[in-house]
Amino acid sequence: MRFAKGHGTENDFVILPDPEGELDLTKETVRLLCDRRAGIGGDGVLRVVRTRAFGETLAPAARTAERPEWFMDYRNADGSIAEMCGNGVRVFARYLLHAGLVQGDRFEVGTRDGAKKVRVEADGDITVDMGFVEVHGTSSAKLARQVVHGTQISVGNPHLACEVAGAVADVDLTEPPALDGEAFPAGANVEVYRKVAPGVLEMRVYERGSGETRSCGTGIVAAAVAASPAGEAATWRVRVLGGECTVDLDPEGARLGGPAVIVAEGETSLL
């Protein structure tokens, strides 16, 4: 089986070209592919599938995903299916361009959160229109050594974005956060962030199904929304362990921009 490897601000993915949707991608296979010792290694798997291969199986929330030719079938490192991945969409878009599957600097990618508009910038970065972001009130999470309080946000997938007073490097993210089960029945990504300069945030994230990662696109958007006055336009540079992304917020939604690169291609016998 052919594969590629790519990352967006070091949020890395195994990319599997499967145009006709013929691959039986089990949880066990995803876990092995993402294993950094026994497999290729990654925070998740991006399966490249023609949208028509899904037939009538797409959920109602994803119906606009029927417009693009290509669908991003995203799996977390533990094999679970995720609704959306901001860095994943940008890396997926880079792969489509790299493989000659799309042309031009503007196109759409299908996801379980619907069709996402993608734009290639003059400097080579990729920006994805994340659509409208939903804010659902407040909640808290118990981390290894502290309780953090934050804003419940949906960026197609669930988040709890928590502002902290000290450096985010001091927060212990070695254990899965304990969340309010009523607020997050399917779990959530948890971000801790701090404003370090006007228009600049630093952030770390514990991703549902993957653990702490060096970046999370939807988490970056969630932190930017949580840090912004409700309903106001804002632009944030968000620094994560793997680099920096930009988030633009306005009444039309959120846009996430940053680097996305393909670093390797090859064949694997793990499938």
Automatic annotation (TrEMBL):
Family: Belongs to the diaminopimelate epimerase family.
Entry keywords, A to Z: Amino-acid biosynthesis, Cytoplasm, Isomerase, Lysine biosynthesis
Entry-linked Pfam families: DAP_epimerase (PF01678)
Oligomer and partners: Homodimer.
GO MF entries: diaminopimelate epimerase activity
EC primary class: isomerase
Pathway listed: Amino-acid biosynthesis; L-lysine biosynthesis via DAP pathway; DL-2,6-diaminopimelate from LL-2,6-diaminopimelate: step 1/1
Function: Catalyzes the stereoinversion of LL-2,6-diaminopimelate (L,L-DAP) to meso-diaminopimelate (meso-DAP), a precursor of L-lysine and an essential component of the bacterial peptidoglycan.
Organism name: Nocardiopsis sinuspersici
The protein's name: Diaminopimelate epimerase
EC number: 5.1.1.7
